[in-house]
Each structure stands twice: as structure tokens, then as C-alpha cells.
Amino acid sequence: MQAIEGRRILLGVTGGIASYKTVAVARQLAQRGALVDVVMTRSAREFVGAITFEAVTGRAVHDALIAEGHALDHIALARENELVVVAPATADFIARAAAGRADDLLAACLVATSAPVLIVPAMNDRMWAHPQTTANVARLREIGYTVLDPAVGPLASPTEGAGPGRMREPEEIVEIVERTLSADASLAGLRVVVTAGPTREPMDAVRFISNRSSGRMGVALAAEALRRGAAVELIAGPLGVPVPHGCAVTNVETTGEMAAAVRDALPGTDVLVMAAAPADFRPAHPAVAKIKKEHGVPALELERTTDILVATRDARPPGCLVVGFALETEDIEANARAKLAAKGLDMIVGNPAGEQGAGFGSETNIVTIIARTGDAEHLPLMSKGGVAAAILDRVAGLRHGR
Ligand code: CTP
Questions:
Q1: What per-residue confidence (pLDDT) applies to 269?
Q2: Is 186 within a domain?
Q3: What is the CATH number of the domain that holds 296?
Q4: How much distance in Å is there from the Cα of 186 to the middle of ligand 1?
Q5: Same domain, 228 and 171
Q6: How many structural domains does the chain have?
Q7: Is residue 1 part of a domain?
Q8: Nearest residue to 90 via CA among 127, 39, 48, 53
Q9: In this predicted structure, what is the pLDDT of residue 163?
Q10: Could you say which of 22, 55, 151, 319 has the lowest number of CB atoms within 10 Å?
Q11: Helix, strand or coil for residue 128?
């Protein structure tokens, strides 16, 4: 995604320990070509020097509403920037923002801007849990600001840290900034369910059979659907890649659990994308305990698992668009078309197994997209993000009757 190259971002920093991590945010944004204007509150300067932010952004840092006797043009700063990010946002800053105060440069910029606002809280877990903070955050969300929930993890004080309060990691913040700046509304208002990854079928208490799926394709689809404004639920087997921030995640282990989760998710769903590679077979008689070697080599009798797309067909709401995948080693188009018909799909994405640059674990894919009513489209080798965009372009087209 080159969404942020040349884009103007106002990065507000308030006085929390986590502000040292905001240096990494500023640095990553600047490395991707964004023009980052850092605005620090007075207390933020107690934690990190302005010079550090100047070094990583290559731009002057702003910190005073009145500089050298002149009113600093906070209106211009607020207008020129396309996104305002406040990270960390302390309880005090959140309270000031919720009250609409304009008593320092950052608060004034917030009131003066019409750009989208992303607030990334960081505070002690008790302060986050306080009803006053809850009410302030609710107010900010009502105004239309995006307020991230803090993470659970070690807080500044070594004796605290049971509850949420920790600032989201720089990588996540940068990912959300990229998505916000590149957002389009082609799936806005829609609920999209994506399945991803393999499933595992237990053989005994410690062993399972599975496959090499990493979940990368499904995760790319979830991220792309979020970028297009959809509400996304990701139903995930054990993944080898991190899930995108902002989707609801249901973790499952077996194909049966994934089938149940898909059935539960289907009411109200507009688009179902089955990108998962559920295990098709499972041990017929899994042992409860660990199978011991001294009893010899066990015979492994397998049985079929549920075909999720077929088994949940009756639960699809009217008008729900269903996209499947077909992983094939030969005759991709013919096999994919047969699966499209057998599983009652609107679109199927055929991809070759075992080919260089495609399939499980690869960063790229080579796909053939076949809509129920159309010709096969053979796409060249692309990143999985690019493939996700191509698939969802066609989904948006079908939704809008094109
Ligand atoms: N799928 C499913 N339930 C399964 C297996 C697969 O719903 N138990 C879905 C996949 O998520 C994919 C589509 O069905 O969207 C096709 O999966 P694929 O593995 O290509 O085909 P299979 O149906 O498993 O058939 P085969 O193994 O014979 O190729």
C-alpha cells in the first residue's frame, strides 16, 4: 500500500510513558513518505525531546499555541493535515477533547480540524476503567473519532497491569493510519465474514492432522474488506500471520468448529468469503490420552469432515454473496467451475497448489476468478493484497449490480 506517500499527518503526542513508542510511529510514517507534523503537549515534552521527533520526521515540531509572541496558525495546521492521530492519548487529554477544550495547541487543532481523528489511548488500567473515562471515550466516538481500545499487557508501573491500558503497538497504529488514508466506501455498510487458515483434527491428546495453510490470503481479504468500509468478522483456524486490527475474530480449531462458527455468523451477513483450507479428513477414533509408542504403530482410520459451504447453505440469508476458493493441482478452470456449481457459489477463485509464487504460505498468488455468470479471468502473479483487492472489486461490482 502506497497510500501514505506524500500525505499530511498531524501526530499529536501527550504526556504518557508510551510516548517513546510514538517515536517509532513517526519514524515508520516518515519512512513510508508521509509528511508528519508532530504536535506535543507541554507534559509530552517531559517524556521525549522535540528534537527526537524532528530527527525522525525531518520536520519542525510544534508545541505552543502562542509561539514567539504570535498566535501559531493552528487553523492552517489543522486544515492542511488529512488525518489527526493522537498517540498516546492520556486520560486527561481524552477528557479535554471530550469537553471540546482548545487550551493548548493540540486540543485547538482537534477542534479546528475537519480531518478524521484517530485517538490511541494509553494509561493506567484503573484510569481506563473509570466511568468518567468510559463516558469521555463514548463522547469522542459519538463525535465520530476512532478511539482504539488499549491493549492488555505490562503497564509502566511494574505493580500494575492486570487490565487494558497499554498503548497499541506502533505497527498496528501505522497499519490503521494507512487504511484510514486509503479508505474507500465500496463495501460500506456491509457485513463481510471471511474464513482463514487451516483447521486441525486431533489424533490424540497431543497430535493432529492439518495442512500448510498460513491464513495469509484470508487475512489479506479481511484487511481489504475493512479498508473498503465493511464490518468484518474473521473466522480463523490457527494462523501463521497476525490478524488485522479492527475485525471481530472467532478462533476455531477443527472443521466442525469452523462450520458451527460460519453458521452462527451467517445471519445478517452480506458477503461470505471462504478462504480457509479446512481439513477434509479427520481421525475417526481420536484417542483421549496420548498414544504411546510401546503399543506399536497405530493404524489411522480417517473419515470425512463437514463440507462447510455445503452444510451451511441453508443458513445463508437471501442475497448473501458467497465466494469460495479452489485449490487445484490440475485443470483449475474446470475443477473450479464444478466446485462453484456444487457448493452454490456466486464466485470462485481458483489457485494452483505447489506452483512457484502461489498457494500456501506464499506472499503472492496466481488466480483465476470465475463468477457464476461470467467468463474466467486469469490474473497475473500478484501480492495476496492485490488479489484480495481484485476479488473484492468484483464482489462490490456484483453487489452494485455491475
Ligand atoms: N471448503 C469447505 N469445507 C471443507 C473444505 C473446503 O467449505 N471441508 C471450502 C474451501 O474453503 C473453499 C472451497 O470449499 O472455499 C473449496 O475448497 P477445496 O479444498 O479447493 O476443495 P474441496 O471441496 O476440499 O475438494 P477437493 O479436496 O476434492 O479438491
A1: 98
A2: no
A3: 3.40.50.10300
A4: 28
A5: no
A6: 2
A7: no
A8: 127
A9: 81
A10: 319
A11: helix
How many other C-beta atoms can be found within 10 angstroms of the C-beta atom of residue 43? 16
The answer to whether position 2 is within a domain reads no
Q: What is the pTM of this model?
A: 0.80
Domain span holding position 343: 191-399
Residue 204 and residue 169 share a domain: no
| Domain-terminating residue out of 124, 150, 181 | 181
pLDDT of residue 199: 98
**Residue position matching grid coordinates 502461489:** 358
Residues composing the chain: 402
| Ligand 1 nearest atom to the CA of residue 279, by list position | 8
Quick one: pLDDT at residue 69? 56
Contacts of 276 (CB under 8 A, 6+ apart): 195, 196, 197, 198, 199, 213, 215, 218, 235, 236, 237, 258, 308
The residue contributing the CA closest to ligand 1 atom 21 is 326
Mean pLDDT by groups of 10 residues along the chain of 402 residues: 85 97 98 97 96 97 73 79 97 98 94 94 95 96 91 73 86 93 91 98 96 95 95 97 91 98 98 98 96 91 98 97 95 95 97 84 90 91 93 93 68
Nearest alpha carbon to residue 155 among 22, 290, 16, 262: 16
Residue 323 beta carbon below 6 angstroms from any ligand 1 atom: no
Same domain, 235 and 371: yes
The pLDDT score that the predictor gives to residue 70 is 60
**Does 211 participate in catalysis according to the annotation?**
yes
Q: Output the nine-digit C-alpha cell for 354.
A: 505447489
> Are 177 and 201 part of one and the same domain?
no
Judge residue 130's burial from the number of C-beta atoms within 10 Å of its C-beta, 0-12 exposed, 13-18 middle, 19 or more buried.
middle
339 and 196 assigned to the same domain: yes
Break the chain down into helix, strand, coil percent, rounded to 5: 35, 25, 40
Alpha-carbon 298 to chain mean position? 42
Q: Is the CB of 133 under 6 A from ligand 1?
A: no
Let me know whether 170 and 195 are in one domain. Answer: no
Q: Which of 181, 204, 229 is the last residue of a domain?
A: 181
Residue 1's pLDDT is: 47
**16 with 151, same domain?**
yes
> Degrees (nearest 5) of the Cα angle 169, 8, 36?
50
